[in-house]
TrEMBL record:
Main localization (coarse): membrane
Topological relation to the membrane, as annotated: Single-pass membrane protein
GO terms for biological process, alphabetical: protein transport by the Tat complex
Region of interest: Disordered: 102-145
Protein name as annotated: Sec-independent protein translocase protein TatB
Presence of keyword Nucleus: no
Taxonomic superkingdom: Bacteria
Pfam family, one: TatA_B_E
Length: 145
């Protein structure tokens, strides 16, 4: 409940409570606060039980912590039924990037054409200047500009 309160802050709160309420009323105040916290916890547990009963047996594994989006996502990513680990392991980023690079530079067409002639044996000649693309301009659209 008070995970983010450090020891210095706790000592400061205790000293402040003794100064404000006095040493005579402080034990009674602590009892009242603990009793109130206990009642709130009992109320929330009974509300959770009522909600679980109303949802029915389909939601018997329902946890209220799953309503937190971070917890829900973490739980779903750990679930093996989704097959995300197989997808992640089956995806070779280097191979995919090499294929995309080859497709962009047109190496697949060059390597198949040169492979058919047998001149380069499937390698790309880096000394040869690439062919300039034909001067094909897209149609002019006055509305687009």
């Amino acid at each position: 409940m008070f995970n983010d309160i450090g020891p210095l802050e706790l000592v400061t709160l205790i000293v402040l409570a003794v100064l404000v309420f006095g040493p005579d009323k402080l034990p009674k105040l602590i009892q009242d606060v603990t009793r109130t916290i206990r009642k709130i916890r009992e109320f929330s547990e009974s509300a959770k039980q009522d909600i679980r009963q109303e949802l029915g047996p389909e939601f018997k594994d329902f946890e209220f912590e799953d309503l937190n989006p971070k917890t829900f996502i973490r739980k779903q990513l750990d679930n093996e039924d989704l097959g995300l680990k197989e997808i992640r392991n089956g995806f070779d980023l280097k191979k995919e990037m090499a294929e995309v690079t080859d497709a962009v530079h047109g190496r697949e067409a060059e390597s198949s054409a040169s492979g058919a002639s047998g001149s380069s044996g499937g390698t790309v000649d880096m000394t040869k200047k690439p062919e300039s693309p034909r001067d094909e301009r897209p149609p002019y659209d006055a509305d687009a500009t």
